[in-house]
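ingest -> validate -> predict -> emit
validate: passed (alphabet ok, no gaps, 325 aa)
predict: started
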Amino acid sequence: MSELHARVSGEFAPHRLQVRNRRRSGDGHFRRIHRSGVAVYELGYGTDVAVNPGELPDFYNIHIPLAGTGTVALDGKEAGSPLSIAGPGHRLAMTWSHDSNTRILQIPQAAMNRAMATRLGDPPSETIRFTPVLDHTTPPVHAWLTLVDTYTQAAAAGLLAQSPLAQGHFEQALLHGLLDTQPHSATPHLSRTATVTSGAMRRALTFCAEHAHEPISVADIAQAARISIRTLRDGFRTQLGTTPLGHLRRVRLELAHHDLLAIARGETSGNVTEVALRWGFTHLSRFAQEHRKTYGVTPSQLLRTPFSTDPVAIQNRSCPIGACG
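emit:
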């Protein structure tokens, strides 16, 4: 137990641990699934324990029970459910049963502040405080917890380490999904709206073109355009008939296509999987479908077909069907 206590303290923060019933003792476990950015852990003590971390430092802990029972108290008041979120400045105390297994999502305060800054243009002036208990019976929270499951599976499989773009988008979806589904102290500020301008749209499109190789989010695009996310989405829908991420996906598909053309010409080496992951396409069959719909051939077909030096053929391969006149 002392070794487990030391490992948990090293990953989170020093805390007091009390074994409440030594007669009900089994093997504890602590698994770090993902540490970079939004971290994911699974923890079970193997015995009935009381855990007292005291005041949390600069991160948010979201406790998602997978097995067993437990209680969570914030600032001396029991939350009412172990499915909860505690943030910087909260005084946290917990109890967990011997058969408990808890997934812990850890979000740095700096990441949360950046998410809010991209929504509002400025970082929050005070620490964001969430309503402690997550109600899994509501569809938005249930969907967000499902996203956590997917994020955990992707991390465990090594996908996030292999594709930084995928990791970045996952993390932004988790952060902004949490801000939109779980009430918090800054919730009233997120309803602000404004009218989109042509200048704002140009800034958004330029940002997408210049940063498509980075794990940017809708919030990042809105910040670059200097408008709210809601206004950005309205502008893309009314002016371009798509969403900001839909447009970004088109940009990345075009860049992926040009990489494939370079391979086909013999100008560089690589394969379809490498190109797809480089531009954030983690579902290879979907990538192939989108490429075929846009360019008339799948990526594999493009690489297998002898490349023509005929100017007309080159133009046809380089442009989406119907886009070149």
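The two ends are 71 Å apart (CA to CA).
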